[in-house]
Amino acid sequence: MPRGQDVVAVLLKDHRTMEDLFRQMRSVEADRAGALKALAALLVAHGQAEESEVYPALKRFKKVDNDEVDQGVAEHAQGNEALLALLAVTEIGSQTWGEKLERLVEAVSRHVDEEERTILNGARQNVPDARRAELGQAFIRQREKYLAEDCGNIDHVRRVVRH
Fold first, then answer.
1. How far apart are CA 35 and CA 20, in angstroms?
2. What's the CA gap between 2 and 29, in Å, rounded?
3. Which of 88, 98, 108, 138 has the most other CB atoms within 10 Å of its CB?
4. Mean pLDDT throughout 1-12?
5. For the ranges 13-22, 71-80, 98-107, which has the lowest average pLDDT?
6. Which of 42, 68, 58 lies closest to 8, judged by CA?
7. In terms of Cα–Cα distance, which of 142, 146, 145 is closest to 56?
8. Is residue 92 within 8 Å of residue 32, measured between CB atoms?
């Protein structure tokens, strides 16, 4: 693999981090507020960086399914809407919070499963290693930019959902 991290590996690592944060948010023994803050930032930064850096590049490869890429964008919107609904609940651990959390987990898990089976497998098979490394660097740079802008705060998430 050329210099840089393979975009597929970077995306998979983010997915596993999100799953870990969901587990923390479900645990009464964990810092649920801290896990929510970390998840909100990662989820928004990850989705926005994918849409700006990764998805457009993947659509240029003939054997990567463009409909699946478009579906990924729609699934990001669903996840952002579910995230906003959870962030709007003021009492962490309440029944409403738990219900909103499960809706978010469902939306993100469905997207992660589909993306890993379709888009990322297509990228592994059809995108040269050097290009995947370039995309990994571009994704990380963009994701870090969004994270530095506090993209997980409720006001930013509202703007993303309205966009």
1. 9
2. 42
3. 108
4. 82
5. 71-80
6. 58
7. 142
8. yes
Reported confidence tier of residue 4, pLDDT bands at 50, 70, 90: confident
CA distances from 146 to 3, 19, 49, 80 (A): 23, 20, 8, 15
pTM comes to: 0.94
